[in-house]
Amino acid sequence: MATDEIKSQGFNLKELFRDVSYEIDYYQRDYTWGEEEVRTLLRDLCTSFRHWGSDPALLRRPGNAPQYFLGPFVYYEQSRNHNRRCLVDGQQRFVTLHLIFLQLRARAQDLGYTRPVDRLNRTITTDGHHFSVGISDHEPVLRAISQGRTYEPGAGDSLSRRNLWARSQQIAALLAEELDSERLDRFIDWLLDRVVLVGIRAVNQDHGYRMFETMNDRGARLTAVDLLKSYLLSNVGSREDELNTNWQEMLRELATDREDAGAPARFIKAALLARHVRPRDADDRRQIDNNLNVWVRKNTDHLGLHPDRPENFMRFVTSLLDTARLFRPLLAASRELKQKDDRLEAVFFNERNGLQAQAVAMLSAIRPDDLPADAKEKGRLVANFIDRWYVLRVLQDLSVQTSDVANLVHDTLVPRLRACHNVTDVAAFLGGLAAQDADPNAEATTFGLRGNNSHQVRYVLARTTGFVEEKCERPGSILAYLDNKQFHIEHLWAKHHSRVEVEIPDPVVFRTRRNQLGGLGLLPGRENSSFNDLPLAQKIPLYRRHNTLLGILAADFDLRNPPLRAFIKTHHLDALLRPFGPMEAMTKVVETRQSLYLRLCALIWHPERLGLRLPALQTACHPPHDTEQTAPQPHASAPRTTRRRTTDVAKMLDAGVLKPGTPIVLTYRSVDHWATVDADGGIVLKATGGTAYGRVDEAGAVVRGTKTCQGMNEWRIEDQQGVRVSLRTLRDQAQASGLLGRTRR
User: Fold this and answer.
1) For 515-568, what is each residue's pLDDT tens digit?
2) Mapped to the 3 state alphabet, what secondary structure does 652-703 carry?
3) 30 within 8 A of 161, measured Cβ to Cβ
4) What letter does residue 85 receive in the DSSP assignment?
C-alpha cells in the first residue's frame, strides 16, 4: 500500500454532507451504537457548545471558536464520482450524526426557524428526497422520522432498524433536555460550522478494504493510559518489572467487561479527579478529561512524582492498584443490577440515568487502605445520596444535566468526602446534606410529564411500582418497568377534554392534570395499545390483573391480599392506596394518587433508609417503619447545595431585573395565560399552581398545547401603563445596560 495513495482532508459537517451521499460496503457491521455511546457523543457536543456560548468574544466572532474534532473516518469515491462516497470506517458516527440532524430539523420546524431548517435540509438529503447517508436497510425508519411518524418495528426487521428508531427517540429527548428553543439555532450553526472530522481517502474499494483490515487487525494506537504507563516506567528505576506487573494486575481488576476497552482510562481519570484535582479547578478537570497523561507530567510536584524519588512512582501505581481492587465491585454493579444482599442497586440506576460522575464521588470517599467491606459501604452511601439528589431534582423540575451533576460531585461532594476517614464520617456528611433538601411533598404537587422528561418520569414510576410490588410480595422486575419497549407510561385519562369538560372547563388545567404523576402508571406495552382511548371506568376492571399501583383502582383488588393490607397499614396509606368508583372526579383521583406517589418517594428515598445519618434535630422526622433505627452521629456542618436554576430568567432574578412573584403573560389564540416567576426562576402557572416549570419553553408549550414554544419571545411582562415587553427584550435591554453579562449575540 503506497503512502502516496493515501490523502487526508478536514471537513466541517456542512462540507461533509453538502451534495454528497455515503454508502457502506458489505463487510460493515450493523448500526450498533447503544444508549451510552449516543449519550456520550451528544452531551459532549452540547457541553462544548455551552463553553463556546459562554464566551462573549466568540459569540461576536464565531469563526474564531476552536473546532471540535470528532475523529477520523476512511472512505473511497466510486468511479471518480466525488458526490458518492463509500464509508470504510466511521459508519456509527455518520449514522448518529444523521439522526441528530433529523431531530434538530424536527424541533426547528416546530419552532418556525426557517434558516436552520434550510441548512439542515442540505445535510439530510442530497436532492430533497435521497438521504445523504444512503443505507437502504435504514430507509423505512428514516422516512418515518423525517415525516414525523412513529415507526412500528416488524417481525423481520434488522437489528439496525430497531436500534435506529430507539436511538432516534433517545436523541430527541436528550436534545430537548440539553437545549432550549433560543439556543437551538446557534447550536445548529455551531454543529455544522465548527465540528470537524478528518477524512482519509482510499483509492478504490480494494484499497479501502485493505485499510479496513489494517485498522481492525493490526493492533491499536497507543492510548493515554499506555503513555502514562510508559512515563511511570521510565521513572521507577530498577523496579520496572514490578511496576509493570502491578499495572497489568490493575487492568485485570478493571476488566469486568472484556468489550469495554475504555474502563482503565475512565478509572484513572476518576481516581485523579477524586484525589488530586485542586478544589473547584475546572482547568484541572478539563485537562485530565482531555489528556490525563499530559496533566500528570505537568503536575509532578503536585502529585509528588519527583524524578529523584522512584519510590514515589511505585507508590502512585500501588495506590491505583489497591483502589482498583476496592472499586471493582462498584464497577461491576454499574453494569448489572444487583439487589437484595448486595444493596448496590443505586450504582446501576445512577449509571443508567447518565450520572457517570458518581465514580469520582465514590472514589473520593474510598481510601487505598480501606477494608473491602468499608469501601463498598462508602460507595453504596455515595451512590444512594446521588440517586436521591436526582429524584428530588426531578420532582421539583430542576435541571439534571451533565453540568449540574458535575457541580454536585466536584464542588460539593469531593472536597468533603476526601476528608471523611470512615463509613460513619461519610454517612454523617451525606446525612447533613440530605437534611437541607426541600420536601418534595410540598414542591411536587403537580409534577408529571412535561416537555421531554419521560425518561425521568418513567424512573420514578418504575421505582415506586417495583417498591410496592416487593413489599406486597408480588413478582415484578424493575428492569422490565424501566424498559420502554416492555412497559409503556399509561395515562389513566385519554386525551379527550370533552369527557371531563364540565368538571374541568380549562383545557390547560386538563392537560396538566392528565399528565401529573398521579394520573399515570406503568402498563405492559401490548395492553397499553389495546386499551386505546377507553374511559377510565372501563379500564379500571382491566387494571386488576396488573401491578398493584394500577390494580388497586379496582374495588376488590385487596380481597384475600394480606401482604397488601399489611403494607397499607404499616405505612398509613389507607386514604391513598385505595380504589376509586367509576364516577369519582378526575381532580380527586389525580390529587390523591399524586400524594400516594410522593409518599412512596419519601419512603424509598428516606435518608435513614439509605444509610445516611441525619443530624440530631432531624430525628423528629421518623424514618419508615421498615428502616433499621440507628443513632444519629455528630458531624461537621455540611455546605448547603444550591437549588438556583441557571436559566436566563433565574439570572435576571439574580441581577434584580425581575423580582420573585413577577406576573408574566402568554397570549395564544387571543387568550391570555398568566403565570408568576418564583424565587428560584421557575414558572408557576396561575391556572394550576403547584410545581414550577423549570423553563419558559415548557411552561409555554403546556398552555399552548404544542410540542414546543419560544418561551423567551412569547412570555411577557406588563408594565404599569399596560405595555407588554417580552422576556427576551427585557433580557437584551439588561445586557445592553450592563446589568447582565453579555452572553448573547
Assistant:
1) 999 999 999 988 877 787 899 999 999 999 899 999 999 998 888 889 999 999
2) HHHCCCCCCCCEEEEEECCEEEEEEECCCCCEEECCCCCCCECCHHHHHHHH
3) no
4) E
**CA dist., res. 677 & res. 486, Å (int):** 39
User: How big is the chain, counted in residues?
Assistant: 745
> What gap in Å lies between CA 713 and CA 139, rounded to an integer?
37
pLDDT of residue 639: 45
Q: Residue 642 — pLDDT band, cuts 50, 70, 90? A: very low
In degrees and rounded to multiples of 5, residue 195 shows phi and psi of -90, 130
Residue 693: which pLDDT band, with cuts at 50, 70 and 90? very high
Distance CA 330, CA 309 (A): 33
Q: Report the candidate in 684, 666, 667 with the shortest Cα–Cα distance to residue 676.
A: 684
Instruction: Please give the mean pLDDT across all residues of the chain.
Output: 86
Work out the percent of the chain whose per-residue pLDDT is above 90.
51
467: left (phi over 0), alpha (psi -120 to 50) or beta: alpha
Q: Residue 401 burial (CB < 10 Å; 0-12/13-18/19+)?
A: middle
CA–CA distances in Å: residue 182 to residues 13, 111, 118, 710: 22, 10, 17, 7
Q: What is the pLDDT of residue 490?
A: 95
Band of residue 637 on the pLDDT scale cut at 50, 70, 90 = very low
For 199, list phi and psi in degrees, rounded to 5.
-95, 130
Distance, in Å, from the CA atom of 480 to the CA atom of 524, rounded to the nearest integer, reads 9
- The Cα 270–Cα 276 span in angstroms is 10
pLDDT, tens only, 65-118: 788 898 888 888 876 666 788 888 888 899 999 999 999 999 999 888 999 999
Q: What are phi and psi of 527, to 5 degrees?
A: -65, -45
Could you give the dihedral angle defined by the CA atoms of residues 290, 294, 296 and 298, in that order, rounded to the nearest 10 degrees?
Answer: -120
The candidate with the shortest Cα–Cα distance to 374, out of 297, 426, 313, 331, is 426
Instruction: List Cβ neighbours of 73 (8 Å cut-off, separation of 6 or more).
Output: 87, 88, 89, 90, 93, 94, 197, 198, 199, 200
The pLDDT, as a whole number, for residue 452 is 76
How distant, in Å, are the alpha carbons of 384, 386, 388, 404, 642 from that of 430?
10, 10, 11, 18, 15
- DSSP code of 492? S
Separation of alpha carbons 450 and 75, rounded Å: 43
CA proximity to 580, closest of 516, 522, 536: 536
Half-sphere exposure of 211 (CA within 13 A, CB side): 23
CA atoms within 13 A of residue 611's CA, in its CB half-sphere? 20
Listed in sequence order, the residues at least 6 apart from 489 whose beta carbon sits closer than 8 Å to its beta carbon are 449, 454, 457, 458, 461, 520, 521, 522
Instruction: Name, of 146-160, 240-254, 570-584, the range with top average pLDDT.
Output: 570-584
